[in-house]
Amino acid sequence: MSETSLPEILRARGLRLTAQRQLVLEAVHELGHATPEQLHHAVREVAAGVNITTIYRTLELLEDLGLVTHTHLSHGSPTYHPVGEDQHAHLVCRDCGAVSEIEPAVLAPLANGLAEERGFQLDIGHVALFGTCGDCGGAK
Amino acid sequence: MSETSLPEILRARGLRLTAQRQLVLEAVHELGHATPEQLHHAVREVAAGVNITTIYRTLELLEDLGLVTHTHLSHGSPTYHPVGEDQHAHLVCRDCGAVSEIEPAVLAPLANGLAEERGFQLDIGHVALFGTCGDCGGAK
DNA sequence: TTTCGTGCAAATGGTTTGCACATGG
DNA sequence: CCATGTGCAAACCATTTGCACGAAA
């Protein structure tokens, strides 16, 4: 359900299996969508010495290997999440900052429309939609 | 068709009308969607001494006044564009980096769906959709 | 052993802040 | 005049890079 086949994938490319790489991948799975800094914290709780630089380099690698992706949820840092099974897009509330996920099905019609009319291949896993969530919209 | 009512809006708030504020607003209208840095360049061509700091502060102000908004088009800097008339969303190609606009109508069904099912009020002008554009997708 | 990965420190790029001077009202 | 704006320089924060040491194969 997690830890895809990191060892094999790495070996297949002649890359090395290291504790850091395993830990970062685990953290991405655990945290869902997390920034490099958040992942750094998570990893540090297990292995104190790991440097933030390594987090960045490892995320780049894992993304290259197709094991994780990142999305830009408004403001600063991108957030990373595991690739695979559960493709999902994000709804971001600009008032309270809450992030929720939506199933790709919701975007399917839009994706099809864009593909037909413009030949644009929508990357659903990368979609972040901004607006006001129910709680903020109703209350405020 | 441009230069809304900057002077009045400012006066209404007891703020001052300055050359810089006019220039930044004009630049936003001219450039469409531009990063702070691009706006800085544009403004400098007219008034050489304007500092990048002022661009940032002015953009924040103009956004606060409801005259401009910003969108995060993937990577680094946000891009600013005038608010009003032509609300539009963006399509960003992750291969070639091209940015194109789509009419809000395309997103209307999605927006309605989200509103009904989740009470989420989609901010269409803020939407950036990532994927592969026709040129890159077909060719590659 | 040999190459790849990591930690560390410094460089970078974008954005923000503090402060004194300039200027609009 | 007086308060707000601006320019400048320095501070910041996230991310990247260079280099020498440490570790996987």
TrEMBL record, chains A, B:
Keywords: DNA-binding, Repressor, Transcription, Transcription regulation, Zinc. It comes from the Bacteria. The keyword Nucleus does not apply. InterPro entries: FUR, Fur_C, WH-like_DNA-bd_sf, WH_DNA-bd_sf. Pfam families: FUR. Belongs to the Fur family. PANTHER family: FERRIC UPTAKE REGULATION PROTEIN, ZINC UPTAKE REGULATION PROTEIN. This is Fur family transcriptional regulator.
